[in-house]
């Protein structure tokens, strides 16, 4: 559990000073939606201000106005008590506002160091060595290790996020925004980031922290604000937060976020192991699989997954999980070894052939490799079936069939979208995930790979996604669930494999004591 | 073979340089523009603008130096329209690029007609710089080291651009503008300024290439004289995958084809001229077939940047 204590009890005398940033009646409209509706909010030095709200509530929009990317349509922004617009990202940085955005703002084709020096004046020479040292020092401060000379595009999403936090700290900001920064971190790293936030606040920094994990909000926040459908619906002041114990505070926040719904706490029921018949033929089998092309090469991976079984894949992010998923899915080549699906070798097949055999892959890179952001939602639902009947006949698009499919999926998967023609990129993260799920779970799935399926989603969407994962298994598919959330794996999986540096360090039955064994495997103690 | 006499070889190699310099400048310029995320289809028009204005100023002032400056100016003028429409206003880069090329073709032909009617005044020969020592090497010396200063400048741009891309902030910013402009913006840099700079610099280089064609190559201005050189520059930039040195190799290769076409004709080889003139374009297609497969282009190439849009 997280430690609820380290709240700053003695906020420095700065409380009397005006807030670094004050929002007064700030409104931001997008076509067809009011993303922020007359928001009043204060961000003070020495405080961790937690923003909570479901996907699409308007948190990132608020962040984009704080960081100068968007201008409010209405309302006033005060800096240190004086009215002053944050006209551009450059102005935000000058004020001392440094942002770690929800979606990576690193250039993939540049190294981490080069990304860190991007803001400097163009006539200066990049000092790679010097910057690398500063970067290493900053990384050490938050307890992560990174290679400043690594090419950003080669890193996992989690590693990129760590690099972004490091870069924000390097800038020496007095106002740090972390938009869903813990989403890609392991529990340990998230806890370390939490401690860091507390330390920075104690040093007088203002921190804005966006998360979907209520325990983090309560443990690290001094002040909580809750957004719902663009409106600020309430919050907890530092005094209120201090007077409540963590469970009470969590309940209060859940009340604000969801109206009446309760926090789902007691979901510790493991799946029933007897539903899986391991004497039957496995659906998916990996035989001494090697894949050398990725950044973390896969070495000698072997496991079987039976019909109806959920095999969890645990491990610290960046230990080959992504390579494993993309190798099975056919996006990365196999160097050696075999993949067998329903008794047939599929390792030489194309992505399309594997899909026809019933292999499905729900990627964590939802907007990158999962969907085409500018295509309408209805087409994204059929992205892997383009040209096939009944949606295309003789190369001709059948708009009615496509629309009908989309309408049906919208209903079935509860996709919240202005219309089925809306480009997927304009939907909120949770709804993009629903589009992906609706597409990948269509038809007769034999094997489904879920990669970090709940990353960045709110409680309601997490619950819906977990239900889909269970349903996939119950319908007889073999499920591979890759996640860095140990609780999620323990809740859903029958067995859990632990990956470490491209190998499977061990496979654990999900029974009492599993958590301990997995922890030992992850830390490399049982090698 | 009696074909390969010294004079033939000197003419051939000198011809490679003459044909290659405009291609090199066009390829380097396009590469810079594409790196920054602007697919500059208008470079054929920029080249013509440079060819015309360069020629006109050289003729009017009787100074080739001013003529080359005029060429740069001509390229800048056309590219400033590209900046206005595509970078600032975010209009479609391909449509505007084609429009600029067609517009420049018409405008330069019209201006030339108004000024010179049916006359094609010829410029006197351009002074060369003899590089002591190197110019004395047989064959290569007279062909490459006793040349117009623009030739040396074009080749010198290759290491200069390598340095800019690898070693300067400007290079990083240009690459970021083409790969992930939002990242550059959120780091506090002005994406539109970087892109504008890249397109203008491209226009300047390409315009100089055009002026080289009219002032040095032909000695006259003839409407439509750039003859697809700008488009070959786009191909070169695409094949070079961001490396200036590869643009140089490509320019030499295509320059050799163009030069061989002329040299073979001059030498009276019994191949139909149409076939010989096809040579460079056959080369373009072959190289595209072989090397064009995994050409890697900047992620945000061709997309206008509007802050906060998703
Ligand atoms: N640039 C944009 N253009 C159009 N709509 C947008 C844009 N950014 C956000 N939205 C919409 O505004 C709403 C709030 O989004 P966002 O602030 O990203 O939510 P959150 O971060 O709380 O999940 C969503 O409905 C989203 O679709
Ligand atoms: Mg968000």
**CATH homologous superfamily identity of chain B:** ABC transporter involved in vitamin B12 uptake, BtuC
Largest sheet of chain B: 2 strands, antiparallel
Binned, the helix content of chain B reads: over 70%
Q: Report helical residue fraction of chain A.
A: 25-40%
Strand order of the largest sheet of chain B: 1-2
Distance between the termini of chain B: 64 Å
Nearest-integer average pLDDT of chain A: 86
By secondary-structure content and strand pairing, the structural class of chain A works out as alpha/beta
In CATH, the topology of chain B is named ABC transporter involved in vitamin B12 uptake, BtuC
Indicate the CATH architecture of the largest domain in chain A.
3-Layer(aba) Sandwich
Give every kind of bound small molecule, once each.
adenosine-5'-diphosphate, magnesium ion
**What pair of chains forms the biggest interface?**
A-B, 34 and 25 residues
How many distinct beta strands of chain A?
A: 22
Task: Domain count of chain A, please report it.
Answer: 3
Structural class of chain B: mainly alpha
Low-confidence segments of chain A, ≥5 residues, pLDDT <50? 1-14, 260-267
| CATH first level of the largest domain in chain A | Alpha Beta
């Amino acid at each position: 559990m997280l430690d609820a204590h380290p709240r700053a009890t003695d906020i420095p005398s700065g409380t009397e000073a005006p807030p670094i940033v004050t929002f007064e009646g700030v409104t931001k409209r997008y076509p067809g939606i009011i993303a922020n509706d007359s928001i009043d909010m204060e961000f003070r030095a020495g405080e961790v201000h937690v923003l909570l709200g479901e996907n699409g509530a308007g948190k990132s929009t608020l962040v984009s106005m704080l960081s100068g990317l968007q201008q409010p349509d209405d309302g006033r922004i005060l800096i240190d008590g004086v009215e002053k617009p944050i006209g551009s990202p450059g102005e935000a940085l000058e004020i001392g506002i440094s942002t770690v955005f929800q979606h990576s703002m690193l250039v993939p084709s540049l190294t981490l160091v080069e990304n860190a020096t991007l803001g400097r004046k163009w006539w200066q020479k990049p000092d790679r060595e010097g910057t690398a040292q500063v970067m290493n020092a900053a990384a050490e401060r938050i307890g992560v290790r990174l290679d400043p000379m690594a090419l950003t595009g080669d890193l996992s999403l989690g590693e990129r996020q760590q690099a972004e936090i490091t870069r924000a700290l390097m800038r020496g900001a007095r106002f740090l925004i972390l938009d869903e920064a813990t989403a890609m971190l392991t529990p340990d790293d998230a806890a370390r980031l939490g401690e860091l936030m507390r330390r920075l606040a104690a040093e007088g920094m203002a921190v804005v922290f966006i998360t979907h994990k209520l325990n983090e909000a309560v443990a690290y926040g001094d002040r909580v604000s809750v957004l719902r459908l663009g409106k600020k619906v309430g919050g907890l002041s530092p005094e209120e937060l201090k007077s409540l114990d963590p469970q009470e505070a969590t309940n209060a926040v859940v009340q604000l976020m969801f109206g009446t719904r309760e926090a789902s706490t007691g979901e510790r029921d493991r799946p029933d192991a007897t539903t899986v018949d391991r004497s039957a033929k496995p659906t998916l089998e990996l035989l001494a699989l090697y894949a050398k092309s990725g950044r973390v090469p896969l070495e000698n991976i072997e496991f079987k997954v039976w019909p109806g079984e959920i095999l969890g894949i645990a491990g610290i992010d960046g230990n080959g999980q992504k390579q494993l998923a993309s190798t099975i899915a056919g996006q990365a080549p196999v160097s050696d070894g075999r993949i067998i699906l329903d008794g047939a070798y599929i390792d030489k097949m194309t992505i399309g052939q594997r899909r026809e055999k019933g292999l499905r892959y729900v990627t964590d890179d939802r907007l990158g490799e999962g969907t085409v952001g500018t295509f309408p939602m209805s087409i994204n639902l059929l992205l892997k079936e383009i040209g096939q009947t009944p949606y295309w006949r003789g190369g001709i698009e059948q708009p009615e069939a496509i629309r009908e499919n989309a309408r049906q999926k919208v209903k079935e998967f509860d996709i919240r979208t202005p219309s089925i023609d809306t480009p997927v990129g304009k939907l909120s993260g949770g709804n993009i995930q629903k589009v992906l799920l609706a597409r990948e779970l269509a038809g007769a799935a034999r094997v489904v790979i879920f990669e970090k399926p709940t990353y960045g989603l709110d409680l309601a969407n997490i619950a819906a996604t977990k239900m889909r994962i269970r349903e996939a298994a119950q319908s007889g598919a073999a499920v591979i669930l890759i996640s860095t959330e140990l609780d999620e794996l323990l809740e859903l999986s029958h067995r859990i494999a632990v990956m470490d540096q491209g190998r499977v360090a061990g496979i654990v039955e999900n029974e009492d004591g599993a958590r301990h064994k997995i922890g030992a495997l992850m830390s490399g103690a049982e090698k | 073979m009696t074909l390969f006499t010294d004079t033939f070889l000197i003419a051939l190699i000198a011809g490679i340089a003459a044909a290659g310099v405009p291609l090199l400048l066009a390829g380097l310029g396009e590469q810079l523009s594409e790196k920054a995320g602007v697919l500059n289809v208008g470079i054929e028009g920029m080249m013509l603008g440079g060819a015309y204005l360069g020629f006109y100023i050289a003729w009017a002032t009787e100074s080739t130096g001013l003529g080359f400056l005029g060429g740069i100016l001509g390229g800048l003028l056309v590219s400033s329209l590209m900046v206005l429409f595509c970078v600032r206003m975010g209009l479609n880069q391909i449509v505007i690029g084609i429009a600029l090329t067609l517009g420049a073709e018409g405008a330069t032909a019209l201006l030339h007609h108004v000024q010179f009617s049916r006359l094609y005044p010829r410029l006197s020969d351009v002074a060369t710089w003899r590089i002591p020592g190197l110019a004395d090497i047989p064959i290569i010396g007279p062909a490459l080291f006793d040349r117009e200063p623009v030739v040396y400048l074009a080749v010198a741009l290759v290491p200069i651009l390598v340095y800019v891309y690898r070693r300067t902030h400007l290079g990083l910013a240009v690459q970021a503008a083409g790969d992930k402009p939002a990242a550059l913006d959120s780091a506090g840099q002005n994406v539109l300024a970087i892109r504008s700079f890249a397109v203008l610099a491209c226009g300047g280089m390409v315009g100089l290439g055009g002026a080289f064609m009219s002032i040095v190559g032909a000695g006259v201005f003839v409407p439509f004289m750039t003859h697809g050189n700008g488009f070959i520059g786009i191909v070169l930039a695409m094949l070079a995958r961001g490396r200036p040195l590869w643009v140089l190799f490509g320019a030499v290769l295509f320059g050799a084809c163009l030069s061989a076409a002329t040299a073979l004709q001059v030498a009276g080889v019994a191949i139909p001229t149409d076939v010989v003139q096809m040579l460079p374009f056959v080369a373009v297609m072959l190289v595209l077939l072989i090397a064009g497969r995994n050409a890697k282009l900047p992620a945000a190439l061709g997309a206008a940047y509007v802050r906060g849009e998703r």
